[in-house]
UniProtKB/TrEMBL annotation:
Provenance organism: Streptomyces malaysiense
Name of the protein this chain belongs to: Squalene cyclase C-terminal domain-containing protein
Pfam families listed in its UniProt record: SQHop_cyclase_C
Residue ranges crossing the lipid bilayer per the database entry: 377-395
GO molecular function, one term: metal ion binding
Cleavable signal peptide: 1-24
Keyword tags: Membrane, Metal-binding, Signal, Transmembrane, Transmembrane helix
Keyword Transmembrane part of the UniProt annotation: yes
Length: 403
């Protein structure tokens, strides 16, 4: 989900505020760019418009909602003719040109969102083809075309490929797949930070453990994107040495590192340069998804419990991508996002943009998930209505709503 919150990555890409820790800017609009109709959130979308919209649409579809036409239309309108996406295009009616800074993260996120909403095969295919065209020789991807590969960018692209049914292992450049790249960033068990993944090698070629990159790399190594459920428990709790780790070994070793990192407090700490000593809610939410996908249920639930107790103010301040991350974390551990520390993540998210609608086939499940209704309550209400006035079903009204 994503998102790519490594300090080096932030320096390279400007900012992905959807994934920023608690120091993220407040929701008031920036004078740099107005927020267009159809886009979720109130803050300046310059650096994260496509990212936060994509996470929102994925979260809504995961809950069984059909996103609003205006919301999907805004995202589609951001695509360039060659299939790529920029972080935000203030004037989408103008064709993309050499000055349009497109990137792999926004494109891969949009792929997952548009595939999830359905009915946009041409746009998805063009985006995937563009991603394949900018793959690096090591099998990975950098944030911008031609930039050095990194774990976070490679992982979000793997998520896009997997979401569309492609086998990431078959997407190769010079014989190397993204799984080959992830293995090269996996730190050997005997080294400092063993089991973790680095964002990318430093200038001296050294691998330094990065929790954000590790969470992204774990889900990618398991062939997952933004949406993941609890997987099979790993064979061993500890890091297992391997000269040439398989994707499963990369994931299990990374999972062991993350489980140890949150063992005492249930959360990760902010690694942002200059940030005060505080929890990193966004990275912790990604860690919940990664741990759950790797079958480390107890650790995932511990981290989720911390978020449920403490992350509400962060989400309210940060915006739609934060709510979406928390919804996807709840999904990963089988929790109800409609009852998150006494509030509804679903209602909070949907209030920040166009209201989605319910699909009939998913109505019962979504009512339980969004916290605005519960099975026992609705059964009782239904009986009273049928007996008293003959009305069959009472549908709750819903208000729905980074950078």
């Amino acid at each position: 989900m994503n998102v790519r919150r490594n300090a080096a990555a932030l320096a390279a890409i400007g900012v992905l505020a959807a994934a920023a820790p608690a120091v993220a800017a407040g929701p008031s609009p920036s004078p740099k760019a107005s927020v267009p109709a159809g886009l979720y959130g109130k803050s300046d979308p310059t650096y994260d418009g496509v990212w936060r919209q994509s996470l929102t649409l994925v979260a809504q579809r995961t809950l069984g909602y059909r996103p609003a036409t205006a919301a999907v239309g805004w995202l589609i309108g951001q695509q360039c003719a060659n299939g790529s996406f920029a972080a935000f295009r203030a004037a989408p009616a103008n064709a993309c040109d050499a000055k349009t800074v497109v990137d792999t993260n926004s494109t891969a996120a949009a792929v997952q969102a548009l595939h999830a909403t359905g009915g946009h095969d041409a746009a998805v295919t063009k985006a995937v083809d563009w991603l394949k065209s900018v793959q690096n020789k090591d099998g990975g991807w950098g944030y911008n075309p031609g930039s050095p590969s990194d774990t976070n960018s490679t992982s979000v692209v793997v998520g896009a490929l997997a979401a569309t049914g492609a086998d990431p292992a078959s997407v190769r450049k010079d014989g190397k797949s993204p799984y080959d790249a992830l293995a090269t960033w996996s730190i050997p068990c005997a080294h400092d930070g063993g089991g973790a993944l680095a964002y990318q090698p430093d200038k001296k070629g050294k691998l330094v453990a990065n929790a954000d990159a590790t969470a992204a790399g774990v889900t990618a190594a398991l062939g997952k994107g933004f949406v993941a459920k609890t997987g099979k428990a790993p064979a061993a709790d500890a890091c297992a040495e391997a000269a040439h780790p398989t994707p499963a070994q990369v994931a299990d070793n990374g999972g062991a590192y993350l489980a140890a990192a949150i063992a005492r407090t249930g959360h990760l700490m902010s690694a942002m340069p200059g940030a005060t000593d505080q929890p990193d809610y966004g990275n912790t939410a990604d860690t919940v998804v990664a741990l759950a996908a790797d079958g480390r249920t107890a650790a995932a639930k511990k981290a989720y419990a911390f978020l449920e107790k403490s992350a509400g103010p962060w989400a309210a301040q940060t915006g739609p991508a934060a709510y979406a991350q928390l919804i996807l974390a709840a999904h990963a551990v089988g929790a109800q996002p409609g009852d998150f520390g006494g509030t509804s993540l679903v209602t909070s998210l949907d209030a920040l943009g166009p209201e989605p609608r319910m699909q009939a086939a998913a109505e019962k499940q979504a009512k339980a998930s969004d916290g605005t209704s519960h099975a026992g309550v609705w059964w009782s209400v239904g009986i009273c209505l049928v007996a008293g006035i003959g009305i069959g079903f009472l549908l709750s009204t819903r208000k729905k709503r980074q950078p």
